TrEMBL record:
One of its GO terms (cellular component) is cytoplasm. NAD(+) binds at residues 148, 202-203, 222, 257-261, 283, 309, 333-336, 381. Substrate binds at residues 123, 147. Its main location: cytoplasm. This is Formate dehydrogenase.
Amino acid sequence: MAKILCVLYDDPITGYPKSYARADVPKIDHYPGGQTAPTPKQIDFTPGELLGSVSGELGLRKYLEGLGHTLVVTSDKEGEDSVFERELPDAEIVISQPFWPAYLTPERIAKAKQLKLAVTAGIGSDHVDLEAAIKNGITVAEVTYSNSISVSEHVVMMILSLVRNYIPSYQWVIKGGWNIADCVERSYDLEAMHVGTVAAGRIGLAVLRRLKPFDVKLHYFDQHRLPESVENELGLTYHPSVEDMVKVCDVVTINAPLHPGTLDLFNDELISKMKRGAYLVNTARGKICNRDAVVRALESGQLAGYAGDVWFPQPAPKDHPWRTMPHHGMTPHISGTSLSAQARYAAGTREILECWFEERPIREEYLIVDGGKLAGTGAHSYTVSK
């Protein structure tokens, strides 16, 4: 029987919900492009419940214990005395979310002698050292596309919040003020601006589609160029490099995975090539942007605003400078863990586990590492040192 170690974020400070704002969430059978939503044989939760916190357990306990397996769920993941560190050595499967990642470093993988499968409940598996997983024969899987649209909606919200100066204006209301001039001195229309995405995969393309009705001029960079039909449909301008694109954009949104080619990509040098007063939105991974370069750019006015929900490390320490830098719209890592998204990625996690225990192939689109090499979505999205 297997031991499954699941790392999830803490319950609400008021306790696990006894009721919810809405009675249900819309059911989605497939995603843009035709990929079907997760298809487990069964689920033991009600869609719309809080599944991503410790008490939610991704709805897995009944299923796993019914098979005789052991499920350990914790939010305690940092340090040698953490529950995660203590339980890891004999765990066969580790599950975590990008929002509260259990970092599987080479050192931790070396200690986890029984580890065979690392599952990301959601998308983005860079918290797993993929080279170490390849070396040690560990399968890495994620629930691809389960929360891509959730993130794309968050991106559009953050772009509008920055450009229209929404957050400071809201704060004037909270403070009892009616300071219209203070609100609008940094407020602009998004209409007719040049907006570009770094990467136009599932999330990036969804962002472009959602922005088209705003009558903006759309740009993109991606290692894999989109079909001409899509470029024509959305009026896209393709750029052969990130540097070429950022020079002309008023707004840049980052929708690329973290790998050696994107690590520290937005540093002082690249940010200096952006339009002065441009906006930067990053819901991809915190380490794609140099932490201190972002702060300097906001303080100097090179960037008019920065927003995102990805940090490094996660959770971010209380003294992280992104908490206090000017003109930001940061949130905790929440873009992909709406209650709607949780229903899908919890079901996808269940589907992956069903395949694993029944010795059936895991969907190709869910695979990141398999058989000692990058596989499936991983082979398309990630790079490792040769």
